[in-house]
Amino acid sequence: MDPNTPDERRPSREEGIPDPASLTGDTPGSGSDSLPGPLPSSPPPKARKKRNRRGVNPSHVAPKHTLIPDSEAFQEHRLNSDGVPGARSSKIEIAYEPHPKQALIRAAIEGGAKIIMFRAGIRSGKTFSCARECLDLIYKDKRLPNLGYIVTPTINMGRIPRRLFIEAAGDALVRYKRASDDGPPHALLLAPEGADFKYYLAEFHSGEYPDRMRGASIGWGWIDEAAYTKPEVYDVILGRLLDSGGILLISTSPSSLSHWTETEVAAHAAKCGRCGQFYYDHKWRREGLKLVPNDHEPENVTGDMKIAVIQCTTYDNIHLPEENIRELEARYALKDPIIKRRELYGEPCGFEGLVYRSFTRQEHRSDLSPWQLPKGSYVVAGVDFGVNDPFVVLFVVRADDVWHVLDEYYYTGPPISIAEHVRTMRMRSPLFQTVKKWWHDPSGKQQAIEMGVAGARNMLRARRRFASGKTWIMARIEAVTALLLGRAKDGGPLLRISPKCVNTIREFESRQWKRYKVEGEDGRVRVMDRKGKEADRNAGEEPVPGNDHATDALEYVIYSELVSGRYKIATQEAEEPLNVSSEDYMAAMAPEMRGLNEHLMASMKDHAVAIRKPKKGESWSWGPTWGM
After folding, report:
1. Is residue 51 part of a domain?
2. CB 312 within 8 Å of CB 281
3. How many domains, in total, are found in the chain?
């Protein structure tokens, strides 16, 4: 027999999954006479008697691509309907019984949505459902081109989506190939019924390298666990779907309100103007933990109708046994309530152990315009220098005893000169010329000199009066916290941030303690670490490094203005002077202000005692003031 015939040919190293461009059978060598890869009866290449670096004989290593022996596709992949070698097309049915929330994914696709995000709690079936919806996009919707991407944050996190996808494919799977020098892991599937091509290809990519996904056009994409995925992945996948008009599925656990899944997807999704519920999630409303049909149709719809968000809780999964739900409830009852809201209820509510836990976007929002400042406004700036870290400048305005963060300069690009930073701020910020003082990081003396030469006049080192090291960090945090909790004459907080300062808001919502205290539902106070595990040590007062550049710049401003006497917490003045003792004065203060005042006075006293001891017959007296 001719050794070049399909049955007797020797498989070469390049044989395996064909290139996506050749799957239609139009290229040479891909006609009905060619096979998708080495056959089970083909003799394997002769292994060399040599061991690799792991000490394993190469002949004992399983091949990277195998046909599934139990599948119908394996038994008949050599014969099509005419008895000619080659792949065949058949009608594939995907076994899938979705619960009410999972069924909304298909409803959104049929309703015309192009981006569908399934934001759900733990064990709600988000990965399970999206794996089957991807197969429905192939065999029910017949999405073209015949290539799809499944993306996970890392290679290791892709094991479960790969397993669920291959398991759901069943007899439709012709071959699965692991990652190699030729490309990422991918699954070769039978073409849908009536297609003019032989195979459909699904590639599994890691979000660690977004640029490796460029180039090809795809019929659909799926990003799993998007809360841990880089935002560049979202942009790259949208570019791959642009010319084909394909569908993008996103399955994720909730994250903070500053995450790209919220700012890029949920913020633009279609919503009901009457109740604010997402349009494609409007079929059901929640009464306690139960789902009931909504009592009205969507009205005055806002947002993009091509973007759908479906929020699902653990309790919505009717296939989950009741005892499993009770077990999860008991586990999360001992953790931070934020963790329970995020993991069980699927709510985007930020992180646990936050430094500025009292901050909320709605309550601390500033609507003051930097172009129309009230008369008598006082403008200062806080500077946190950075080369590898972000270079941050916050422009802060004090008007009627309220601090407003109205503008930010947050540079994360390649290193540039200080003069270039100043030139850019001068062009972009309307508040640059009105700044009275620039409070900067005390460790950046040389950078401050360069900023002054470039045009930022009156550069001042952030005050560290009577505090140093961790004590200074805590004093700054307490000063900002006091303004977040304090109330102005109009009833609003004493510190407000403009919505345009997105990086400052993100850091307020993500800066965490290394360890923190939390009271469980059993009444016991526990010390937890960042991973939500109980720590056998004191909580301490040490924030986690990172996510602190904009907050540091703001802390420089607030603390320096307080200790320098330029600003004091506004309180209502009594009609007549009152003679009160120091103890009565402290007791009358708000709890947060009392703690800050006590901290500052203790620091001042320790500093003075370290300088000199009182003379004979001299006594120390400490009044409730902000300065000496």
Report:
1. no
2. no
3. 3
Contact between 530 and 544 (Cβ < 8 Å): yes
Same domain? 428 vs 550: yes
Please state which of the ranges 198-202, 378-382, 560-564, 577-581 shows the lowest mean pLDDT.
577-581
With respect to residue 416, please indicate whether it lies within any of the assigned structural domains: yes
* Cα–Cα nearest to 96, from 119, 138, 128: 128
Together in a domain, 240 and 119: yes
DSSP type of residue 262: I
**Full residue range of the structural domain in which residue 24 is found:** 1-41
Residue 422's CATH number: 3.30.420.280
Q: How far is CA 273 from CA 89, 156, 166, 262, 316, in A?
A: 46, 41, 41, 18, 25
Strand partners, 177: 65, 186
Q: Is 449 left (phi over 0), alpha (psi -120 to 50) or beta?
A: alpha
Whether omega for the bond prior to residue 145 falls within 30 degrees of 0, making it cis, is yes
**357 with 444, same domain?**
yes
Amino acid identity of residue 515, one-letter, is R
Give the Cα-Cα-Cα angle 450, 456, 459 (nearest 5 degrees): 80
| Residue 116 and residue 36 share a domain | no
Q: Is residue 614 part of a domain?
A: yes
* 72 within a domain of the structure (yes/no): no
| Residue 275 shares a structural domain with residue 129 | yes
pLDDT in tens, 423-466: 999 999 999 999 999 999 888 889 999 999 998 888 888 876 65
The amino acid occupying position 303 is G
User: What pLDDT, on the 0 to 100 scale, is given for residue 466?
Assistant: 55
In angstroms, how far is CA 575 from the centroid of its own chain? 52
Q: What is the pLDDT of residues 10-28, one digit of tens each?
A: 333 333 444 444 444 443 3
Closest CA to 440 of 416, 456, 421, 453: 456
Strands (E), 121-237: 147-152, 173-177, 186-190, 199-206, 220-224
CATH number reported for the structural domain that contains residue 243 in this entry: 3.40.50.300
Shared domain check, 285 and 360: no
Q: pLDDT at position 215, please?
A: 86
pLDDT at 603: 58
Mean predicted lDDT score pLDDT of the chain:
77
Same domain, 27 and 133: no
* pTM of the entire predicted model: 0.65
Q: Are residues 449 and 387 in the same domain?
A: yes
Strand partners, 528: 516, 534
Which of 512, 552, 258, 546 has its CA nearest to residue 394? 552
- Do residues 202 and 111 touch, judged by C-beta distance below 8 A? no
